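User: Hello, can you help with two protein structures?

Assistant: Certainly.
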Amino acid sequence: MQFKSIWGAAGAKLLTRSDIVTTTTIWGGDYTQFNEFIYNNNTGTIPLLWSDCYVGIYRANQVLSNLPNVADDNFTQEERDQVEAQAKFLRAFFYWQLAYNYGKAIIHTDIVSQIEDFTKAPSSKEDVLSQVVIPDLEYAIENLPVEWSEKGRITTGAAKSLLAKTYLYEKEWSKAASLLLEVIESGTYSLASDPVENFVLAGEYNSESIFEINYTLNYKENNLASIVDDYSDRTGSEASNIGVSFAGYEAGGYNSCLPTYWLEEMFIDSDEKDPNYGKWGSNVYSRRTYASIVTEKGLGPYFGSDDPGTYAAFRYGWASKIKKFIPWDTNDGPLNQGLGSGCGVNYKVIRLADIYLMYAEAVLNDNGDVATAIEYIDKVRARAGVITLAQYQADNGGMIPQLHLSRFNSDDPSSRSFTEVNAASIMTHIQMVERPLELCFEGHRWHDLRRWGITEDVFKARRADELVMISKLCTEDPVSQAIDSDKESVVYPWYIEEYVRTQYAGPAANYIPEEHDFLGIPDVEIQTNPLANE
């Protein structure tokens, strides 16, 4: 599971295909190609993700093919069924990745050993789901326990959650809602008290975790985190190399992935802290803001520094940095120890907050149940320490604010636009506020934009806001986009030095749904399998 294309520096490159993650042109390369939609089917992560998924599938098929040969006295029937269920879950997981990243996959449910067996045409996303993903997950649901004594093993809750997510993506709302409610009402999971517990070492396998990939720096020490498993000349570690992409220079990273200005504005200006949380004292932002990004005004340590002024120079137009899944709360700077930017923080693939938001979306689209949707959205908002939608309604005559709209770019930044509460407005809130803020940098945003069919509209809207921002903050030089010192008073809600970085010109101009909604099958597959391009 520890493939760097699933979670690591290679996979992080795919995160830049959204409105919430940008990159720095200092390093360029694959990050810029994905960010600006100028990649092709040979660009770095595309062949790597394809290959990694099939390594995982091959391993699962090995277990499934050889399990019948294991003597009966080695297993009880229940144990045998559980082994089969775990292997089928993993096979479903990797085929899920192929289906939703490439829109198709070549189906192999047995060990492939003959050359002619590799020559096979790809199946559609729908066929991959119906022939492999759904039946494998259904088997896993029936044969996996609710929990194990060993942490990290796959449970029936994980299988139900991934199947529910599949149904949600396919707009089978009733099926998704039913499974999601089963997970919620199982009593197995509960929200962590603070969002930050999901993204630091101390919060691994907490009450909110449903399925996570384990990493550690304490096993196979001093081995590279940039590779997985064993090679003929190198031995991989059990650590993630996500720090290369997420961490700042001072921590051994490269700032390759950065929050966009729009996302930072959402956190700082729209994620309004609930005044009832008096214990926050001088903390000016929401709990999930502090859990997700580090800003110039951020409080608390960032790799040993409590002084925002030493957060590695917010220069070059950078306004904030990512905190999730890197050990920013430590003082020893482990990312800077020559370990291929090794990071031991686990990656939560599925957690309860996502289940709540998917359930809200499912019931909203299934039968227009606005009240239940708000109830589950507000569970997430209450934990985040922000004003709930119910409270907004109570304070504003039943209306809620359009929190996704930039106040900085409006004619009157001191006011906020409000809207009636209905299925459409709550769906917009899920799409533009709750999911991007709660789940940012966790690998969901691109899939969300694509499945909702709003990617192009979002990029164009962000680009329009960006042009207004530039006109308000910058000098008349369109090339440098340097901050005009006479306009510094209007920089809020960001802290930007030197110049404004263009973040949406490429996506708005280059994104084409037919070309970019799914990745292309890599040439290496086409060269070895003539039918792969059919």
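That covers the first. Now for the second protein you mentioned:
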Amino acid sequence: MCIDPEKSERSLEIYQKLIAEQQNQIRELEQKLQQERELRRELEAQIGTGTAFRAEGQLIQKIAETIPGLTYIYDLNKQCNIYVNDRSSQILGCTPEEIQHLGSQLFSTIMHPEDLAKVPGNVETLVKYEDHQIFEWEYRIRNARGEWRWLMSRDVIFSRNPDGSPQHLLGYAIDITDCKREARERNQLIASLEKSQEMYRTLIKYYPNGSVFVFDRDLRYSLVDGQGLARAGISKEQLEGKSLQETVPPEDLQLFESKYRAALAGEEHTFEYKYRDLIYSITVVPLKNDREEIFAGMVVSQEITEQKQADLSLQQVKKDLEIKFQKQSAVLKASNQQLREEIIEHWRAEEALRESQQQLELFFSQSLDGFLFMMLDEPIQWDDTVDKEKVLDGVFASEKVTKANDALVAIYGATKEEFMVKH
């Protein structure tokens, strides 16, 4: 889960701002009440206590109607509210008359039991206060819709009994339910963020052969770790809390800044970067919260020096093989051409031999009167210096005759096959 610390901080600022505004309003009310007290003393001196008290009530009512919170006067002797302004309808869903009708049963009826148990202790503390001191406390009230709402009250002693003990409390209450919820959500976010950061740190710390960097919108590193830092001769302390400009060589600043700002705009980029004798594959991506809002960027750096060297070696081997292949291809092409020529020459020789055999068969198949033909398996001497009859007898006796024409075979009164077997 991605968490936006900026949103959490804004929630805290809103909460603090709201509390500050309410405190300012209370201070203004206290100033008006102080003015009213002075006016009351003047009226008492002029026309008597009864008339002054009525004038005091009218003044308080006018003041109460002008402020956004719930204003009330609580009688400690009767344990009930003797005055509540009209804001009670907005905050509690009850009219001032309904609240006064509940009397001393108000707290037990609408206050949360856990907070009701604290009331006696709060009263015991408050009665020890001076007139100018303000008692502040928070508690839960169930409104007319059955919802539990958080209120914050600021009470001061308004009047005292003849024995000097507090009689009336003047109070001002505001609904802080939303602020409490935002504060709770903020605390949950902070706890979740701390847990996530711890998880991220653990994962990043053991990220093999690389490093991870998280940077904010000011391009300042908020998280740096990974096993690759040591190999590069860098510690996370050198980078965490530092800006990009403080950590990157000037000649590379423009490259990294453009990639970082692109990530904060929602883009992802991967590029190679050489640092000293090491080569890195760097990926820069945006980080988003659960509302898909970009609140930071992340850099994942993976050392690829050995891989690049292996790639270069592989490319060299490939180049060498291509050269060898080209050479072998040329040799093979020449060999193929020579073999082709030899095959063609052999084919031509076979064709010539077949033609010669066909012509020879045709020659021997002809029967020419007076001509005798035969073929021997080896040359013999045949001229006037030899006894030709003896030569022929020797030829026939040695079975050297491989072919004979019909005229020669006819002399012996046999077929060609019989003649060849005999001779």
